[in-house]
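re: ur question from earlier - yeah i can do the single chain one, its not a big deal. heres the input i used so u can compare w yours
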Amino acid sequence: MTRATIFDLDDTLVDSADTWLRVCAAFAARHGHPWRAEDTAALHGNGRWAAYVAGLCGGAADPAEVVEACATAATGEVAAGRVPALPGAVDLVLEARRHGPVGRPRPARAASSWRCSTGWACRAG
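and the output i got, formated as tokens:
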């Protein structure tokens, strides 16, 4: 019996990699750092992405500020419908839910925005 299912939203359920790169690049640019190809490469798979972006800003921002600003910007992109669900993602989540609880990814506000923009919340009941 399945006790619970937890999904990672980013590039598992939604096509969000480009969105995260854009919001991180915009944050860095606002703090005087022009985004480079090596910054994009450094962010992929980096669990310390916020510290990396904060480091690019030369002390003008801390990782918590990076997380807040980038999550807010990404959530806005999701809410505006610019971060699409990947093919089959909604059906996958609905099927998982038939077998038990489905975990809510972080940041929770991004997950909520995605559920609203895809209609998942309406169909999941």
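The chain has seven helices and no strands. not sure if urs matches, ping me
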